[in-house]
Design a protein that fits this description.
Helix content is 81%, strand content 0%. The protein is mostly helical and 195 residues long. Helix 3 runs antiparallel to helix 4, helix 3 runs parallel beside helix 5 and helix 4 packs antiparallel against helix 5.
Length: 195
């Protein structure tokens, strides 16, 4: 009984420290905010808000390497904290480790079914000039929108798929037959079909 009461008190104190950290962040007193988040984690190493708040603050301060360490420590303690995976993706992207960042964000999107993360992933693939991967992501978004009955999302995804199929040309294994004449026919069929 005493152990449970101690755990609840630590959690309550940790929540108060997180609240204070957020207040200091809002007042642009970032050094104090970092200390409060750290103190909250000392009291309660399972505080989701403290881990995510500290990682986001480090990233906002331009300390991407430190943010990555924070998110990694959170994942080591709580592997099911998928938002830390998304945070680590953003830290890795900021560090220029794009392939690792894309893998993290794709994993997060798959685990959480986060459509906004898939849109961001498609943007990252575009920024890296990885058009076939961007095309595959937009096809995935098209399927999700169609399944959900999201007409606007389906239209957007279909339009992007059409455009990317043209850009990828022969590099699209899903739509590129071997013969050049067959490629033109396949492109016409895809355009008529809507992606």
């Amino acid at each position: 009984m005493g152990l449970a009461a101690g755990s609840t008190a630590a959690s309550s104190s940790g929540d108060e420290l997180v609240r204070q950290a957020r207040q200091h962040e809002a007042e642009h007193d970032d050094d104090v905010a970092v200390r409060r988040y750290t103190e909250a984690l000392t009291l309660d190493p399972t505080s989701v808000e403290a881990w995510l708040g500290l990682g986001a603050l480090r990233l906002r301060l331009g300390e991407a390497a430190e943010a990555e360490r924070v998110y990694q420590a959170a994942l080591d303690r709580m592997p099911s904290l998928h938002l830390a995976l998304a945070g680590r993706a953003h830290a890795r992207w900021a560090l220029g480790r794009h392939t690792e960042a894309e893998t993290d964000l794709e994993t997060y999107a798959g685990l959480e079914g986060d459509v906004a993360a898939l849109h961001e992933l498609a943007e990252w693939f575009a920024a890296d000039g990885r058009t076939p991967a961007q095309l595959a992501t937009w096809r995935r978004l098209h399927d999700i929108a169609r399944t959900a009955g999201d007409e606007a999302g389906e239209h957007e995804a279909r339009t992007m798929v059409r455009a990317l199929v043209i850009l990828v040309d022969g590099g699209d294994p899903a739509a590129s037959p071997i013969a050049p004449d067959a490629t033109r026919r396949a492109m016409r069929a895809i355009a008529r079909r809507g992606g």
